[in-house]
Design brief:
The radius of gyration is 22 Å and the shape is globular. It is of the alpha/beta class. The strands form five sheets. The chain has a five-stranded parallel beta sheet with strand order 2-3-1-4-10, sandwiched between helices. The chain has helices at residues 3-29, 44-54, 64-77, 80-86, 88-96, 105-117, 137-149, 163-172, 230-248, 309-323, and strands at residues 31-37, 59-63, 124-128, 152-160, 173-175, 182-184, 192-196, 201-205, 214-215, 255-259, 261-263, 276-282, 288-294, 296-299, 302-306. Helix 1 runs parallel beside helix 10 and helix 4 packs across helix 5 (88-96). The longest helix is centred in the first third of the chain and has 27 residues, at 3-29. It has two domains: 3-162 and 227-265 and 308-323, Rossmann fold (3-Layer(aba) Sandwich), CATH 3.40.50; 167-226 and 279-293, no CATH class. The structure holds zinc ion.
């Protein structure tokens, strides 16, 4: 295990204290089905990885998107069994769906049914991927009831993070055009950094190919002026509409909300809980100096810190420990 990760795991257990114990004991005798809801790149996957490590053999991470990708591959290999099972129409839906072309509702229902009928036994589930559209809400509510009948405690957990932090993450992603190595100029690890006099910007180089990393295509989503394209904001607005609508249809026992940023003046944790980002400068010899500082942003007119998994997962455990008592 990577030592940073191991340290975060130890820290989370200690800092969560009684909440950690409560949730651990609960997981010994109950199975949770947690719908993780968040805007893109908040960090769901990273949080799930930490939860799986903190509670060994208790959680399984299940993704709707991954299931679709898997089924697309299966169809490529041999589509007959899937046509027999779900019919030609769903198989065509699966073959042709993409980021731009959503899977039609009837097929969403079939895939989700398939997914919940094949859950690993005796484990809690961290589920990601539905609902993305308001039309999908009735499906998750209906299937949520079925999961409850099968003994799961169903929880919808919304995790939010300041848009300014998400923006910074989006525009700092970089990828190697040659080997597809991906990194971030905000949180460089193995990349070499140099100052480009022409563009007056710091540039990261691929640790393997030693060539400059580029913006991630389609993902940095900047317009010609270097601003995030409207589509990013539209997607976030839509997420909020869907989650708000979903919340009105669920009881307080089922819906929980938390943020993974925190107003600076309220923060009482240790530095390990904060996301550090690189601040670049150049010394008189022209060498690039990297200083790591806590990332901050403005949210609701207050300055907030962005929480690292060590800080975020402590809050997730606390929230879950509360929900299971409701
Ligand atoms: Zn490379």
């Amino acid at each position: 295990m990577n030592p940073e990760f191991a340290k975060a795991i130890q820290y989370i257990k200690k800092r969560s204290g009684s909440d950690f114990k409560k949730l651990r004991d609960h997981l010994d005798t109950h199975n949770l089905f947690i719908f993780l809801l968040s805007k893109k790149i908040v960090g769901k996957n990273l949080y799930s990885t930490h939860l799986e490590e903190i509670f060994p053999n208790k959680f399984d991470n299940v993704s709707f998107g991954e299931t679709i990708r898997y089924l697309k591959e299966e169809i490529k290999k041999n589509k007959k069994p899937l046509v027999d099972k779900w019919g030609q129409e769903t198989v065509v839906d699966l073959q042709t769906c993409s980021v731009a072309k959503l899977l039609p509702l009837t097929s969403v229902r079939k895939v989700f049914e398939h997914l919940i009928n094949n859950l690993p036994s005796n484990k809690s589930i961290l589920f990601d991927g539905l609902p993305r559209e308001k039309e999908q809400i009735p499906i998750v509510i209906e299937k949520g009831r079925i999961l409850s009948k099968r003994g799961y405690k169903v929880i919808f957990l919304e995790i939010d993070l300041a848009d300014e932090i998400l923006d910074a993450r989006l525009v700092s992603r970089r990828v190697c055009p040659q080997c597809q190595y991906s990194g971030s100029i905000l949180t460089p690890t193995a990349e070499k950094i140099a100052y480009d006099q022409k563009t007056r910007a710091y540039v990261a180089f691929c640790p393997k190919c030693a060539i400059p990393l580029e913006y991630k295509k389609g993902d940095h989503q900047l317009d010609q002026l270097g601003k995030l394209v409207q589509a990013v904001y539209e997607r976030r607005k839509k997420f909020k509409q869907v989650s708000t609508l979903l919340q009105t249809q669920l009881s307080a026992k089922q819906y929980a909300f938390l943020r993974t940023d925190v107003p600076c003046e309220e923060f009482k944790g240790e530095k390990i809980e904060l996301n550090l980002i690189a601040k670049y400068s150049t010394n008189t010899d022209g060498e690039v100096i990297i200083k790591r500082v806590p990332q901050t942003a403005i949210h609701n007119e207050r300055t907030v810190y962005s929480l690292a998994p060590a800080g975020a997962v402590v809050r997730i455990i606390k929230t879950l420990a509360e929900v299971i008592r409701r």
